[in-house]
């Protein structure tokens, strides 16, 4: 007997009788569904790989296209703005236009824009293409969570959530080495084109595997156009302001003040509209669910720690030891590749009724905090291999932190609220990554200035040196300031990880797996 999906209403977020009547019917869980889900997973992983293109290959892209440093930073900001904005609104359109149709259109647009990006005649066209590609890429992650919640039987639903967790653990770690490989050995254009072969395979899998739901165009009668016009600009302005803030000196720049102030005002109006609208993109009332609120709050801290665990050693090796991205790649692969084994094992652990996922979360946070605590002991003599133990602790620390949060956020709500949970989780995930980047940039600048000033003050009474010696001394001072700054950042994120553990006994309530494994 084929297993039937237990959440046929997972794509009907209006929640009323009409929605239930028009909800997709139960779908047999068979090989076609498995292939379709793997297709969505592949597409989401490709979007994660593509996110690192302009960061890893930016120097080569700028050199090939004659783009200045400032314009290059806008490539990063515009892509992120489009991506996070799409995460917020994609679930609504997937319900209306059908999951299969919407996913196929998003993958096709994602590939086409990637194909055209290196062919852009100037930086303005490239910025427009990357912003649009960010929209297409950001529409994909919510589709994976929605599909997993809808199609997977209860006893293996956690494995579907583990596949979604790969986008936070495996995707970023693999994206950097892949981008570095293409730029180093093939050509900078392939940093953009690497998504095309996998994208074609993903489209074929989705087209064959996922069922075609009917259009639900009647939902446009209650289209939340005011929410879209308020929310999309609000998120975009905030993302751009956060990513450009450090470069433009934050509130000392009228542009940053306008971006953050305007984004904050529009966000407030957007949330007020969502509270009142009968068919919102975000159901604010769900924040009354303790486990969901806790998961969203903790997710922000977990992503800060995970991002720091990748950026700090990469930046240290690049600036202090002069490593190229391809030389840094093996260190990132130490964490990324084992995720293919670690995540299923963590899912099997959480799927046991005897295991409380809250304590799995606590252990995971403890492992990540301990990893960062070890990293705070780094010195100027460290090379790539000295980070081995630090990275090994991340192998199980990351999935043991992310998967319980997914379990808490989705297991505490009704299946009919699945798209709302997807919108909340993915948007918070995207915004948290942006905020984490801004926080790390701000802390890096502040600690670097502090250590540079202290080191220079200590050398103030040294006898006058010849010009060549002064130059060498300045380089050594800057190098040591970078080392001390990296150690400080490790210590800060370790404190964040340990602080999150302290609230676990008081806020979340225990939940059990959808259907416990024997």
Structure, explained:
- This protein has three domains: 184 residues, Growth Hormone, Chain: A (Up-down Bundle); 56 residues; 233 residues, MFS general substrate transporter like domains (Growth Hormone, Chain: A).
- It has 20 helices and two strands.
- The protein is mainly alpha-helical and 518 residues long.
Q: What name does the CATH topology of the largest domain carry? A: Growth Hormone, Chain: A
Order of helices and strands: EHEHHHHHHHHHHHHHHHHHHH
Beta-strand percent range:
under 5%
Looking at CATH, the homologous superfamily of the largest domain is MFS general substrate transporter like domains
Please summarize the sheet with the most strands.
Answer: 2 strands, antiparallel
Q: Judging by the overall fold, what is the CATH architecture of the largest domain?
A: Up-down Bundle
Q: Any idea what the shape is?
A: globular
Helix fraction, binned, reads over 70%
Q: By helix and strand content, what is the structural category?
A: mainly alpha
């Amino acid at each position: 007997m084929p297993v039937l999906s237990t959440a046929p209403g997972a794509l009907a977020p209006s929640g009323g009788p009409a929605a239930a009547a028009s909800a997709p019917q139960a779908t047999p869980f068979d090989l076609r569904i498995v292939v379709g889900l793997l297709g969505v997973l592949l597409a989401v992983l490709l979007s994660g790989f593509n996110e690192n293109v302009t960061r890893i290959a930016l120097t080569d892209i700028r050199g090939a296209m004659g783009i200045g440093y400032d314009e290059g930073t806008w490539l990063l900001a515009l892509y992120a703005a489009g991506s996070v904005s799409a995460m917020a609104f994609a679930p609504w359109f997937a319900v209306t236009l059908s999951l299969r149709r919407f996913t196929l259109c998003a993958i096709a647009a994602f590939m086409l824009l990637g194909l055209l990006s290196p062919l852009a005649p100037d930086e303005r066209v490239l910025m427009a293409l990357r912003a649009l590609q960010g929209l297409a890429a950001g529409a994909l992650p919510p589709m994976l969570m929605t599909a997993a919640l809808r199609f997977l039987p209860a006893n293996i639903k956690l494995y579907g959530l583990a596949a979604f967790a790969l986008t936070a653990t495996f995707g970023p770690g693999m994206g950097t080495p892949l981008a570095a490989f293409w730029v180093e050995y093939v050509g900078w254009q392939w940093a953009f084109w690497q998504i095309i072969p996998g994208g074609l395979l993903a489209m074929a899998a989705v087209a064959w595997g996922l069922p075609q739901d009917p259009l639900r165009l009647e939902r446009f009668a209650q289209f939340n156009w005011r929410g879209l016009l308020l929310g999309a600009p609000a998120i975009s302005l905030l993302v751009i302001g956060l990513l450009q803030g450090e470069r433009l000196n934050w509130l000392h720049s009228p542009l940053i003040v306008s971006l953050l102030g305007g984004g904050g005002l529009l966000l407030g109006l957007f949330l007020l509209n969502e509270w009142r609208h009968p068919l919102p993109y975000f159901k604010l009332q769900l924040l009354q669910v303790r486990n969901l609120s806790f998961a969203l709050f903790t997710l922000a801290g977990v992503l800060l720690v995970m991002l720091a665990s990748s950026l700090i050693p990469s930046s240290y090796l690049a600036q202090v030891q002069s490593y190229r991205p391809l030389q840094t790649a093996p260190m990132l692969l130490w964490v990324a590749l084992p995720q293919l084994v670690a995540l299923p094992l963590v899912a099997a652990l959480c799927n046991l009724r005897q295991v409380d996922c809250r304590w799995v979360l606590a252990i995971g946070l403890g492992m990540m905090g301990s990893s960062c605590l070890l990293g705070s002991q780094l010195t100027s003599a460290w090379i790539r291999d000295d980070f081995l133990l630090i990275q090994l602790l991340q192998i199980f620390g990351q999935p043991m932190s992310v998967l319980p949060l997914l379990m808490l956020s989705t297991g505490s709500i009704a299946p009919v609220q699945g798209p709302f949970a997807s919108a909340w989780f993915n948007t918070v995930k995207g915004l948290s990554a942006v905020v984490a980047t801004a926080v790390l940039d701000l802390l890096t600048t502040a600690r670097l200035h502090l250590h540079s000033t202290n080191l220079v003050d200590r050398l103030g009474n040294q006898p006058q040196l010849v010009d060549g010696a002064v130059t060498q001394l300045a380089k050594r001072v800057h190098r040591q300031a970078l080392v001390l700054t990296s150690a400080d950042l490790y210590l800060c994120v370790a404190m964040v990880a340990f602080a999150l553990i302290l609230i676990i006994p008081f806020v979340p309530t225990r939940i059990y797996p959808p259907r416990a494994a024997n």
